[in-house]
C-alpha cells in the first residue's frame, strides 16, 4: 500500500495528535531525515552482510520524543523487505530490564513478527512465538497443497520439513520448536500452548515439558543461548535472520550497583557476541535517550566506552553510534519539512484545503515555537507533531493561522 487513504490518514492524525508517537503503519508518510541511515543499513547490512552470516550491533541515541521509535519502525520495514523476522521490544524497568537478560529474551520471543504487508498491519495481527509458529505451519501447509499433496502424503511432507530443522545450539530449544509444530499438525492445542509458554520464557514444569524433550530452564545463565538458538531456528525456517529493536522507552529508575554492573555486562556480552561467527544472521539496535549509563570509572565502563565510541555513517558504516540529533542541521527547517508532510496527511484525512499562505504561516509558527523548546524535558520533535495537528485543527475550523498564545 503506497497510496494514502482517508482511513489511514485519520489514524495517523489521531495517533500523532494525541500522543506524539508514530503509528505502526503510516509513519512512512511523514518521515524526514532518516534516509541516509536507512540506505546504509540496507546496503551494508540487511541486503548483504547479515544474510551472509554476519551480525551487528548499533546504539541509537536520541532524547525522549526525539524520533527513536520512528527510526526503529523504519528499520523494521527495511528488514521485512529483506525477509528478516523482526522483534520490537520496549524495554521497561518492570517487565524487561536489561539487567535481566532472561526477561529480555522472553520479550524478544513475545515480540517476533515475520514480514507483514501494510494490509496485514492494518487489519490486526498478533505478535509472538505462538502466532509466528502457526503462521509458518500454515505457510508450509499451503505450499504442500499447491504441490497437489493431500492426506497422508501432505502430512509426511510437513513432517519432513519439521525434521529438517537442525543445527541449533540448544537441543531443548530445537526439540521445543519441533514438538510445537507436531502438536499443531496433530491438533494437540494444550501441548502447543504449554510448549509456547516455555519458548517465551514464561515457565518450566519438568513433568509437562520433559516429555517433549525440553530439559533446560530459560534463566539468566541460558538466556543468551536461547537468543542464539532462536536466530538459528529462524534461518533454518527460511528467513534471513532476526533484527531486534530494543527501545528504552521509559526512564530507567535508579539501579543498585549490582544491577547496573549486570546491565553493562549484558550489553558487553551482546556486543561481543555480534563479533563471533557463532552468532550469525542477527542485527541488534539498542535505542537509548542518552549515553549517561556509560559514565563510570571502573573497568566495565571503560570496556564499553571503547566498544561504543565509533560513529555510524556513510564514511564509517562499521561505526556503532547513531546520534539522531546529527540528522538535524537546522531545527526549524527540519520541523517545517515534517509539518508539510503532516499537512498533506491532514488534508487527506479531512478532505479539506488550506490557503497556501495560511498553511505556510501555521507550519512556520509551530516550528519556531517547538524549536525554542528543544532544551526542555519533552522532545521538541514530539512537541512539534502534537502541536501542528492541533494548529491544523484550528486552521481548518477558524480559517486563520493560530497565534503563539493559541499554541500554548
Biggest sheet record: 6 strands, mixed
Secondary structure: helix percent = 40-55%
Low-confidence stretches: none
End-to-end CA span: 37 Å
Strand order of the largest sheet: 3-2-4-5-1-6
Q: Which class best fits the helix and strand makeup?
A: alpha/beta
What is the molecular shape? globular
Strand content: 5-15%
Secondary-structure element pattern, one letter each: HHEHEHEHHHHHHHEHEHEHHHH
Using only CA atoms, what is the Rg?
A: 23 Å
Could you explain the architecture of this structure?
It is a single chain. This protein is an alpha/beta fold and 408 residues long. Helices cover 54% and strands 8% of the residues. The protein has 17 helices and 6 strands. Helix 4 (101-111) runs parallel beside helix 11 (223-236) and helix 12 runs parallel beside helix 13 (299-308). The longest helix has 20 residues, at 331-350. It is globular and about 70 Å long. The relative contact order is 0.15.
Amino acid at each position: 500500500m503506497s497510496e494514502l487513504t482517508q482511513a489511514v490518514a485519520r489514524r495517523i492524525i489521531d495517533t500523532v495528535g494525541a500522543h506524539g508517537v508514530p503509528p505502526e503503519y503510516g509513519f512512512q508518510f511523514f518521515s524526514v531525515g532518516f534516509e541516509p541511515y536507512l540506505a546504509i543499513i540496507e546496503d551494508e547490512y540487511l541486503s548483504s552482510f547479515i544474510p551472509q552470516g554476519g551480525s551487528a550491533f548499533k546504539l541509537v541515541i536520541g532524547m525522549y520524543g526525539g524520533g527513536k521509535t520512528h527510526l526503529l519502525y523504519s528499520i523494521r520495514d527495511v528488514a521485512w523487505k529483506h525477509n528478516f523476522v523482526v522483534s520490537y521490544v520496549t524495554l521497561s524497568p518492570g517487565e524487561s530490564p536489561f539487567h535481566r537478560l532472561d526477561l529480555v529474551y522472553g520479550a524478544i520471543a513475545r515480540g517476533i513478527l515475520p514480514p507483514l504487508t501494510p494490509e496485514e498491519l492494518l487489519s490486526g495481527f498478533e505478535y509472538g512465538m505462538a502466532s509466528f509458529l502457526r503462521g509458518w505451519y500454515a505457510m508450509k501447509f499451503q505450499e504442500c497443497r499447491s504441490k497437489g499433496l493431500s492426506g497422508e502424503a501432505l502430512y509426511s511432507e510437513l513432517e519432513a520439513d519439521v525434521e529438517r530443522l537442525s543445527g541449533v545450539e540448544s537441543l531443548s530449544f530445537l526439540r521445543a520448536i519441533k514438538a510445537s509444530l507436531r502438536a499443531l499438525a496433530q491438533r494437540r492445542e494444550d501441548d502447543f500452548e504449554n510448549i509456547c509458554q516455555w519458548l517465551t520464557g514464561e515457565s518450566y514444569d519438568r513433568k509437562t515439558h520433559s516429555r517433549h524433550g525440553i530439559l533446560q530452564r530459560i534463566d539468566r545463565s541460558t538466556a543468551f543461548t536461547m537468543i542464539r538458538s532462536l536466530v538459528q531456528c529462524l534461518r533454518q525456517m527460511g528467513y534471513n535472520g532476526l533484527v531486534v529493536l530494543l527501545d528504552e522507552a521509559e526512564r530507567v529508575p535508579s539501579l543498585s550497583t549490582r544491577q547496573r554492573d549486570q546491565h553493562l555486562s549484558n550489553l558487553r556480552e551482546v556486543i561481543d557476541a555480534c563479533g563471533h561467527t557463532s552468532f550469525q544472521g542477527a542485527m541488534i539496535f539498542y535505542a537509548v535517550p542518552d549515553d549517561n549509563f556509560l559514565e563510570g570509572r571502573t573497568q566495565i565502563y571503560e570496556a564499553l566506552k571503547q566498544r561504543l565510541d565509533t560513529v555510524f555513517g556513510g564514511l564509517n558504516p562499521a561505526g556503532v553510534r547513531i546520534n539522531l540529533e546529527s540528522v538535524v542541521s537546522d531545527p526549524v527547517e527540519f520541523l517545517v519539512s515534517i509539518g508539510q508532510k503532516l499537512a498533506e496527511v491532514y488534508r487527506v484525512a479531512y478532505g479539506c484545503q488550506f490557503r497556501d499562505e495560511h498553511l505556510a504561516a501555521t507550519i512556520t509558527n509551530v516550528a519556531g515555537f517547538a524549536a525554542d523548546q528543544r532544551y526542555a524535558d519533552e522532545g521538541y520533535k514530539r512537541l512539534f507533531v502534537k502541536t501542528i495537528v492541533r494548529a491544523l485543527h484550528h486552521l481548518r475550523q477558524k480559517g486563520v493561522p493560530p497565534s503563539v498564545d493559541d499554541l500554548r
